[in-house]
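Ticket 4471: requesting a sanity check on a complex prediction with 2-deoxy-2-amino glucitol-6-phosphate. Repro inputs:
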Amino acid sequence: MCGIVGIVGHSPAAPLIVDALKRLEYRGYDSAGVATIEHGHLARRRAEGKLVNLEKRLRAEPLDGTIGIGHTRWATHGVPNETNAHPHFSDDVAIVHNGIIENFAELRAELEKDGYAFTSQTDTEVVAHLVSRELRRGVPPVEAAFRALKRLRGAFALAIMFRSDEDLIIGARNGPPLAVGHGEGEMFLGSDATALAPFTTSITYMEDGDWAVVRRNLVQIFDMNGEPVERRQQQAIGTSFLVDKGNHRHFMEKEIHEQPEVISHTLAHYLDFTSNTVKPLDLPFDFAGLDRLYISACGTAYLAGLIGKYWFERHARLPVDIDVASEFRYREIPIVQKSAALFISQSGETADTLASLRYCRKEGAPIGAIVNVRQSTIARESDVTLPTLAGPEIGVASTKAFTCQLSVLAALALRAGVARGKISVEEEKVLIHQLSETPRLANQVLKLDRQIEKVARELSHYKHVLYLGRDTNFPLAMEGALKLKEISYIHAEGYAAGELKHGPIALIDEGMPVIVIAPHDRIFEKTVSNMQEVAARGGKIILITDKAGAAHATVKTLETIVLPDVPELLAPILYALPIQLLAYHTAVFMGTDVDQPRNLAKSVTVE
Ligand code: AGP
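Returned structure tokens:
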């Protein structure tokens, strides 16, 4: 998604804005731009592609001015080129925008009738002209912005600058996040605390419907009725360091290898490894009294939730209703009385997940959120936040957040099992001791990196790949497919192995490698017959299993990746690592932009 930065400061704004935008690169973008008020005039530089292109432009034609706004654009309306890059101008107004103005077509028609000529294909430009039209009517800047905001429908975060007032930026938030950074005699606006970290860690998070008047020595926040509102000024947590790749080629590689450490941090947050019990959790519901648990999320977070469903139902006998948030939010699900809702999101800003949360809130369900960004919107709108301690995840493809989400879900499922009398104290001790071994086992699994890189070289020659798994390895098969497709652009599908004969087997030939995720568990033999069906049709099998699985596979495989023996409860967490590495190395061989794959954003803050 787009990134927004604004500065009302006392030093040249343009270079500071570009530095801050760099901290938002992980969100994914395809063009960028900066505008300042330079000697009483609006001036801007924009460039297609990465920020290095904008920096080149600024070196050739520097921008003066101590007030400015900047933007990294992820195209929603209009192709990613310089003309459509933000900031957009209209007379004496400059604007940057994240989100979608849903009624932009009617606004554009109205403004064109009023004589406004559009220079871009973007929805954003209508906002600039709306504000400018109010100014032409003699309305002062703050009121002009307010009137324009009230005409907008949709999800947006905006920063608006006025040639006539070098001590004013208007910020507005309705959906995508926006925060105010408090400096000494200077103020900042940013899409998140990470962008503002170089300037300040004193942050005020704007809420939906807020708009802010930001001046060097004053910030006033109002609601959409124009009434002043109080928003807490707080210290941002752990965003002051600039995340870097260490000695890795990509953030994704670094984050894959951070998993033993961050999984241990996350597990330790929920489990007491001395007593081998789940630590007391201050939940807004009692698992013992629940008839149903609703789970909703998107993408990889949804697949973590799907694995969680197996665990809640198996270990706590708690029925789970789970759906991807883009469906959940519109399904009008009858939320039963004795239920709770759990939302899983790395960024805590995913629009569909937030909308599903709000649906459950409206229906009266207590809300829990498993998030990696504690001060995110989803966290702030939940009754309880269940943090993953993965640290900032920069690579667009979610890896360490996924295994940390699984770690939290495993702890919750055990908590629920004990509370509902389905797990004895002894069983709890055994299962938690097993979980305590996850980081060590993860370290062992990561030692397979070289072998997996070799397999990836082979995989990179194919156009289509099928992943198969049973039980908790079925969501993992889908996660493996998602990882591969989103960073290597190779088409991949994840299927329940038992579904093979119901259609996908028609795909099998020597041109379709099949990746089978199958530890030697109680249903391993079932998967062996699936592999035999694949082999009988010339399919190439890459088996991810353990020693016993390798010994009993009885089919010829292209490659067998043998993991250490792991307890069943840990399998989804540990078998996630080889599928992440497989996708990563395949993408490296494909030469794609591993950390910022095309068309993707790290946080999908619009529908
Ligand atoms: C996963 O690799 C993708 N980047 C994507 O599916 C992601 O998991 C999804 O957009 C949800 O994001 P969230 O966890 O921040 O809500």
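Notes from triage: The chain has a mean pLDDT of 93. Leaving this open until the requester confirms.
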